[in-house]
Amino acid sequence: MPRASERRSAASQRHADTVRFVLFEARPAGLTFPQLVRSGELTPSQTRAGLACLSDIIAERGWPPLIWTKRDGYRFCTAAAELQASELSIVREKLTEIRRFITAVVSTYAALQPKGRWMKHLNTQLGSVDSTLDIIAEYIDT
Predict the structure, then answer these.
(1) Beta strand segments in the chain, E
(2) Above 90 in pLDDT, residue 102?
(3) Do residues 119 and 109 lie in contact, with contact meaning Cβ atoms separated by under 8 Å?
C-alpha cells in the first residue's frame, strides 16, 4: 500500500495550495485554525487535509517549515530557534502520547497475557520509542 504522501488526492493538493496562499498573504504573522478556515473559505476538514498535504509538499521541496504555536497559530518558520522550540514541543507531545498508551492500553492487556510473546515484543518496542523520545527531548532542551 502506498504511503499517505503518495496517496494525495487532487482535492487535498488544491486545499494545500489555498492554505499556502493564505499563509503567504498573512506573513510574517500567523493564523489560528479558525482564521485559516475563514480566510481560505474552506471547511475545517478541507483545511486539515490541506495542512497535512502542505506539510508533505514542504518536506519534499525543501521549503521553509510550517510550524504551529499557541500564540501565533500556523505560520512559516524563519528562525532556527523557533523551529527548535516547535520540534521540542512536538517531541514532548508524542512522548506523552506514547507513555499514556503504554500505561492505559498496553499495561492493561499485559496483565491479561503477562507471558505472551507478542506482549513482550510490544513492551520492548514501545519502551525503546519512549527512551528514544526522552533522549531527544533532553538533548534538544540543553
Answers:
(1) 66-69, 73-76
(2) no
(3) yes
Report which residue type is found at 9: S
Burial label for 83, CB within 10 Å (0-12, 13-18, 19+), is middle
Which residue in the block uniquely carries the three cell numbers 514532548? Answer: 92
Backbone angles phi, psi at 31, to 5 degrees: -130, 135
Q: CA triplet 104, 52, 65: central angle to 5 degrees?
A: 105
Cβ-proximal residues to 50 (8 Å cutoff; 6+ apart), any chain: 12, 14, 15, 16, 17, 18, 19, 40, 42
Cis peptide before 28 (omega within 30 of 0): yes
Percent of the chain with pLDDT over 70: 93
Please, how many CA atoms are within 13 Å of residue 60, restricted to the half-sphere of its CB?
Answer: 8
Angle between helices 117-141 and 80-101 in degrees, nearest 10: 150
